[in-house]
Amino acid sequence: MNIIDAIINLVQNPVTQLVNYYEGKNRANNAGDALEEYIKDIFANSFNMPEKERIERLNEVFSYLGNNSNPPDAMLKYGDAIEAKKIESDNAALALNSSYPKHKIYASSPMISSACKNAETWEEKDIIYTVGVVKQNRLKHLCMVYGLDYCASEECYSRIKYTIKNGVEAIPDIEFTESKELGHVNRVDPLGITYMRIRGMWGIDNPWKVFHYVYERDMSKGFNFMCIVNETKWNSFGNIQKLLDLEQTIPELTITDIRIKNPDNPAQLNDAKLISFSKEN
C-alpha cells in the first residue's frame, strides 16, 4: 500500500463527520484520535470492517503504529512513514513541540523508539505529513505532503539545535545532565535543589500556506483535499494508472503538473503532481 492507494480510498470514502463515525465504532473519543483512525483507514482500506478484521488488516499494512510521544504515527510495511496532525483553524501552524520538521526519518534518530526501529529492517524512510482541519468534529480540509517537499534537510534544523545546546553548555559554573533536550541544568541555587529543563518548541506553517502558490482551497465546499507528490516519488509507484483512470470518472478529482520550490534552495523548482479533490456540503 502507498499514498496512491490512500488517495483512491479517500476519494471513494470521504468520511467528513469524523467524530460521529469513529465514536460510533468505539475507536475514538476526540477529533484528534478520529483523524488518526481515518488516516489508518484510508491507507489500509479498512472502512466498515468488523473490529477483528480491521485489526488484522492494519497488521498487514503497517509495520508500526505509534502515538504522540513516539513519532512517527505509523509506518507502512517497507514503505513510507506517516505523521498525522490536526489543526482547528484554516491558517493555524503545526505545533511540532520538541521535534523539528522531518525531511525524512532515520532509524538512527534518538527520537525514534526501539519498537519503531525494530519494526522492520530499515535505515531511512520518506515521511508523509497528513494534516487535517477539523471544525466542530467535522473534517473540512485534508492534505498530504512529503517531508522532502515540505521542509528542509535535517542539517538545517540540527545545526540550530546543537548551536543553542552547545552555547548553553558553555555557561561556566553550571552542572549539566545528559539529556535529549537542549539542556538540563542541575543545582541552579546554593542549596542545590533547583533544576531547569531547556526545551525547543518547534512549529511550521501548514501546507496550505506553504504551497499557496500552486493550490487554494475552495472555501465554499464542504471538504477539500490536496496532495503534492514530487515527480521522482510519483514515478516510483506502480499503481498511478489506477488513480489516472479514476480521475476520468470523477470530475471533482484532478491531477495537475506543477513546479514547487526546493525546501533547501527555493531558487530551484522541482517537478511535482498536485492531486486535488473536493466535496459539496
Describe the structure.
- By secondary structure, the chain is α+β, with helices and mostly antiparallel strands.
- The protein has one domain (3-279).
- It is 30% helix and 33% strand.
- It has 10 helices and 14 strands.
- The protein has helices spanning 3-12, 18-23, 31-44, 51-61, 114-117, 147-150, 154-169, 207-210, 231-236, 240-249, and strands at 62-67, 70-76, 81-87, 94-97, 104-106, 124-135, 138-146, 175-176, 183-186, 196-198, 202-204, 223-230, 253-262, 265-279.
- The strands form 3 sheets. Strands 1, 2, 3, 5, 6, 7, 12, 13 and 14 form a 9-stranded mixed β-sheet that branches. A 3-stranded antiparallel β-sheet has the order 8-9-10.
- A hairpin with a 4-residue loop joins β2 and β3.
- The two termini are 30 Å apart.
- The mean pLDDT is 91.
